[in-house]
Amino acid sequence: MKKKAVALLSGGLDSTLAIKLMLEQGVEVHALNFLTIFCNCTSKGCRHQATKVAEEFKIPIKVMNITEEYMEVVKNPKHPRGRNMNPCIDCRIFTFKKAKEFMREIDASFIITGEVLGQRPMSQRRQSIMTIEKETGLNGLILRPLSAKFFEPTIPEVEGAVDRNKLLDIQGRRRDKQMALAKEFDINDYPCPAGGCLLTDTCFSARIKDLFKYVPEYDISDLHLLKIGRHFRVSDNLKLIIGRDEKENQRLLSFSKQGDYVFDILDIPSAIGLARSSETNTLPVIAKHEVPKQSRDIELIASILARYSDEDGKPLTVSYKILPSQEWQNISASPASEESLKNFRII
Q1: Under a CB-based contact definition with an 8 Å cutoff, are residues 329 and 272 in contact?
Q2: Beta strands 329-333 and 316-322: pairing type?
Q3: In 38, 113, 167, 342, which residue has its Cα 20 to 30 A from 234's Cα atom?
Q4: pLDDT, tens digit (0-9, with 9 covering 90-100), for 242-265
Q5: Cβ atoms < 10 Å from Cβ of 291
């Protein structure tokens, strides 16, 4: 067996250590990083950190953006989800199948992962691990250097490509041993030792459930918008997103598209609102010129935006336009009450 492996590299501490242990044994490692909009493990992103690790270790890395393909897994998982929208077992099956394809592409012999037995409640239980290996057809070909002593020897161990005596017996959710090992290897910059997935977040899960229910024909910009601002379901066909600061205001505008409505309070510093319809990319009630400017939807949106302005309960002039037009129209609005917002807020 060749001493050549594909390593799943998130950029987190565990996957970094797993690769380091293999490099210490002379294994030729090719890193594979999966990128989705659901990754929340570092402020600069998993791709940044994974690439940085690969550069420091002087190993090649392939970064794959799998967001659109992965959405089918999120919508229709075969195995139970976690507490929220996280399809952890199906996620691992999906990514290992991708790794298997890459392994064959570069003529590698096995796969390395930083998984630790018992660390994650869904995908890193022994039964889940066995299920994942079976459904991917990778029995004996997934090496977990940090927890190898808790599993039967893998094929690379049996065939001598890897020395089992130099593998570890870490299990559970504590990170003491990993941090001590990082210190031993002089690995100091690991901003996401535990990683992160937005699909495990209750608030984000509520937003993606809302998207699946009301916008079956969503696009990639709809997915990106899930990560920004405050979300309100105005009606079955209409959602409003309000930025929480200047940075989010700019991000909202960067993901806007033709047919979206932009709401702003032009004469004071304020939040920006982006309203999007799920019907043919227009707002069916307020986009038609024959409908009075102060329609119910416009009034409601204006009042919600006024609620998040810098003023204190005073009526305000809210401006709005439909993209790509730059022509603003105005409406007077009083801030919505906190009680009324409960009927529209998506947590």
Answers
A1: no
A2: antiparallel
A3: 38
A4: 999 999 999 999 999 999 999 999
A5: 15
Place of tokens 């405050």: 230
How are strands ordered across the β-sheet holding 28-35?
A: 61-65, 28-35, 4-8, 110-112, 142-143
Measured from the Cβ of residue 255, the count of other Cβ atoms closer than 10 Å reads 18
pTM: 0.87
For the segment 278-317, what is each residue's pLDDT rounded down to a tens digit?
A: 875 444 444 444 444 348 899 999 999 999 987 777 889 9
Look at strands 28-35 and 4-8 and give their pairing: parallel
In this structure, what DSSP letter does residue 207 have?
A: H
Sign of the Cα torsion 258, 263, 266, 268 reads negative
The candidate with the shortest Cα–Cα distance to 155, out of 165, 145, 166, 143, is 143
Q: Kindly tell me if the per-residue pLDDT of 233 is higher than 70.
A: yes
* 6-15 residue pLDDT tens: 999 998 899 9
Q: Which two tokens stand for residue 191?
A: 């901003």
Pick the closest to residue 133 from 104, 85, 99, 106 (CA basis): 99
Q: Which residues are 143's β-sheet partners?
A: 112
How far is the C-alpha of 21 from the C-alpha of 1, rounded, in Å? 18
Task: Kindly provide the b/e burial profile for residues 101-125, where b requires at least 16 CB atoms within 10 angstroms of the residue's own CB.
Answer: ebbeeeebbbbbbbbbbebbebbbe
Burial string for 167-203 (b: 16+ CB within 10 Å, else e) reads: bbebbeeebebbeebbeeeebeebebeebbbbbbbee
Tokens 């609620």, residue located: 307
Comparing 5-9, 37-41, 98-102, 153-157, the range with the smallest average pLDDT is 37-41
Six-digit token pair at 243?
A: 């930025």
Alpha-helical regions (H) of the chain: 13-24, 46-57, 67-75, 88-105, 126-136, 155-158, 176-184, 202-214, 220-225, 246-254, 296-307, 338-341
In eight-state DSSP terms, residue 39 is B
Which two tokens mark 185? 């290897």
Residue type, 275: A
